[in-house]
Amino acid sequence: MVTCYLRYVIDPFKLQEFEDHARLWISLVEKLGGKHHGYFLPPEGANNIALALFTFPSLAEYEQYRLKFKSDPECIAANKYGEETRCFLSYERSFFRPMFE
User: Is the pLDDT of residue 18 over 90?
Assistant: First the structure.
């Protein structure tokens, strides 16, 4: 199992646009085989950082998701929405594996 952690620098004046963008991606990750754990938005403190977490059964399946979303019309439209609204300025992606006792 691999969990993708996304840390976004968002435009706090475009929070609604970012929320709309996030809602699109939750269903798209699920559609393409992942389990989305949600977006986490700033209630207080830093108002320009948001997080997202989603999991795939393996890194290989995550790589398949990456290939699929490049040609999926809904994913292309979701990316375009993010670019057009500029609701986030940048993001960084990291991967984690769970550890249980």
Answer: yes
